[in-house]
Amino acid sequence: MNDDVRNIVLGVIATAVSGGFGWFARTYLWRRTLRRKQGFFGLPAGAECLFVVNRQMGGKESSVHRNDAFALLEISALIKDCGANVQIVTHDEARQGFGERAEFCVGGPTSNTRTVAHLASMLPGVRVNVDTQEHEDRGAIQVGGESYRWAKGRVEYVLLARLTGAQGGRPVFLLSGQTAVSNQAAARYLARHHERLARTYGKDPFCLVLKVVNSDAYGPDVTELAADVTRAALTPVPAAA
């Protein structure tokens, strides 16, 4: 074997070894990222999860607002990436506990009775004004001594929370907004930032207030973190004297 042939053979071998290591590294990183995502969402491959939809305010009892349907699509992509399966139920049909299956619950307490139960049992420090009459505090989210008021089309707020019961188990993701647009904004925020949220909180519970800016012009696209209210939201409000 002359030098030219030897160099060609060695080059082919080096290329094959380098490509093999590159493929192995990419596969390892992909699997590690997938495992982290599955752990954060409580969605191992083949697992079943629950998506609880609310009803459209002012619509038929069985109707779902278009933006809440879009929220379902945003979250469905995450569920599919994890290799899990989803069961969609309406809020008044979800008569079961939590922990056995991961759950995504969308909608504020005025349109989702499941949200009412989750707020009472797992976020005792949160209060939401559910008055039907028009006034400045209608729909306001109160937590940690702050009141997050809704200004239609200009400023909307939504709670994004990852919750677990006292016995642990699979998490509940609560997306409780003042409007359907804010619900979709929370779903989009979760889809875009779940890796950072997983690095920050791991598998611990958290509760964030997100601010949706000028939804009349931008829809759910311009969303920012208003506050991390985890400690206040998980702490029961002292009874009034």
Automatic annotation (TrEMBL):
One of its GO terms (molecular function) is isomerase activity. The chain crosses the membrane at residues 6-29. Keywords: Isomerase, Membrane, Transmembrane, Transmembrane helix. This is Triose-phosphate isomerase. It comes from Streptomyces virginiae (Streptomyces cinnamonensis).
